[in-house]
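> example.struct
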């Protein structure tokens, strides 16, 4: 067996799926839902964490309700194309983008633009400030195409698990 391969059984896959749905459940509730003893459930979750399959556990905020509470909320999908695509230039832009808290996701993509960014800002002035910092002031940024989100029809963080 390859040293990088990870052996997962049906219970591991059920645990991963259950944790994707609600990682805030107590170990007791999770064990009960999967018909495991609490010590076995905890041991298996710790193993999945140590294998790096569970990257982290976070609270997913409802962006629409938060926007109402804060007064605004702007989300955008941004395509970024660079003039130079050598590895150093790509890495330089990537480091700059991921340092910005408003950038929720940063993807290198191909073909097409070099990057796709998922951005969340308070409002349009905040987006303008971000765009000047990331795009306008970077001489290697050739083209930026921003799509402002008007409706979220689906949002999930689940990775499909099947075997």
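> example.seq
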């Amino acid at each position: 067996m390859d040293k990088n391969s990870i052996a997962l059984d049906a219970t591991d896959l059920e645990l991963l799926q259950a944790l994707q749905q609600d990682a805030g459940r107590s170990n007791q509730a999770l064990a009960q839902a999967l018909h495991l003893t609490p010590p076995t459930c905890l041991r298996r979750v710790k193993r999945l964490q140590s294998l790096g399959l569970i990257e982290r556990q976070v609270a997913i905020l409802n962006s629409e309700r938060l926007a109402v509470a804060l007064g605004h909320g702007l989300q955008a999908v941004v395509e970024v194309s660079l003039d130079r695509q050598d590895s150093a230039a790509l890495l330089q832009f990537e480091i700059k983008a991921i340092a910005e808290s408003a950038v929720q996701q940063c993807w290198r993509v191909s073909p097409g633009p070099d990057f796709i960014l998922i951005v969340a800002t308070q409002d349009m002035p905040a987006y303008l400030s971000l765009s000047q910092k990331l795009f306008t002031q970077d001489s290697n940024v050739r083209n930026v195409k921003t799509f402002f989100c008007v409706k979220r029809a689906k949002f999930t963080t689940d990775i499909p698990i099947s075997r």
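> remarks
The longest strand covers residues 74-82.
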